[in-house]
Design brief:
two-stranded antiparallel ribbon; mainly alpha; Farnesyl Diphosphate Synthase; transferase; metal ion binding; 2 domains
């Protein structure tokens, strides 16, 4: 069994290969540039780990890992356009570097390249992987649409927000694990358990991300605390606070959301703490983390083989930066 770090190194080395032709350079160079920005590569590596639960990593799994990373980057490139973002992991975004029209096309060709990798799979598993990949891709688009719609809505329920996070973020991690398990010859029950592990882990991770934006250590978190509050971004914490506040606190929170007052972040955080939102978020994150670990525990393989996935989950959920 390989650790996350070992598989990360192996995948990064393999993924550095050129994925596109040289011409037309205006189309393919921006795609290679964006892929070269890097990232944690969690989804493809989770896919490899899931395969290795049930035996040696198959060549098909490396192809799926390539497809997953290309698809993920396709979504990020288009997200940057929709969000009008200027930076991605500290580098200039493609739509600012090369223009919006080129960015759209370069993202599109990443998606097409992902399907080309999948098309090289063993014909026996290809229809199964295609079906799951297509279902997941559609769900990710649905999640992104909900996210954009929520920005324009005054009120969003917690259930709606969790469903959006599940679609936009969690299902791709869940499907990555299931695809690796499918190639590894896992039973249907084991595939379902790994999918449940990934889905709940993804939600727990997002709860923690929302929490850290408000209550994290800025030196370890890598950015100034309170960015979501400044942008009035709908998060687990804000949605729950709007459900809980009443009277004077409700009026104060509404005023803070409508205006950029001095010390806005501090005042909103004070409301969160008064309502116990910080402790509530920790408990909610723990509920989803516990569900994730239970799904992993229920996978019918020797416990020692699950260590890498368990370590990865603990790393993602116990970070304080």
């Amino acid at each position: 069994m390989h650790s996350f770090q070992e598989l990360s190194k192996q995948f990064s080395e393999k993924f550095q290969t050129k994925h596109f032709p040289y011409q037309p350079e205006g189309l393919y160079e921006p795609a290679e540039y964006f892929l070269g920005i890097g990232g944690k590569r969690i989804r493809p590596i989770a896919c490899l780990m899931a395969n290795e639960l049930f035996g040696d990593i198959e060549s098909d799994t490396w192809q799926i890992a390539n497809a997953l990373e290309l698809f993920h980057n396709f979504t990020l490139l288009h997200d940057d356009i929709m969000d009008e973002a200027s930076l991605r992991r500290g580098k200039q975004t493609v739509h600012l570097r090369n223009g919006q029209n080129t960015a759209i096309l370069s993202g599109d060709v990443m998606l097409i390249r992902a399907y080309e990798y999948l098309n090289e799979l063993n014909p026996e598993i290809l229809p199964i992987i295609f079906k799951l990949f297509n279902k997941t891709a559609k769900e990710v688009c649905e999640g992104q649409q909900y996210d954009m719609e929520f920005e324009r809505r005054e009120n969003v329920s917690l259930d709606e927000y969790i469903n959006m996070i599940k679609l936009k973020t969690s299902v791709l991690l869940a499907a990555s694990l299931e695809m690796g398990a499918i190639v590894g010859g896992a039973t249907r029950n084991n595939c379902d358990r790994l999918y449940g592990f990934g889905k709940n882990l993804g939600i727990a991770f997002q709860i923690q991300d929302d929490y850290l934006d408000c209550f994290g250590n800025p030196e370890k978190f890598g950015k100034e605390v309170g960015g979501d509050i400044r942008r009035n971004k709908k998060t687990f914490l804000l949605i729950k606070a709007k459900e809980m506040v009443s009277g004077t606190q409700k009026a104060q929170l509404e005023r803070l959301l409508e205006n950029d007052e001095e010390d806005k972040v501090g005042k909103v955080l004070s409301i969160y703490k008064d309502c116990g939102i910080d402790e509530w978020a920790k408990q909610l994150q723990k509920q989803y983390a516990d569900k994730a670990f239970q799904h992993l525990e229920d996978v019918v393989v020797i416990n020692a083989r699950k260590k890498s996935l368990r370590d990865l989950a603990e790393y993602l959920l116990q970070r304080d930066y």
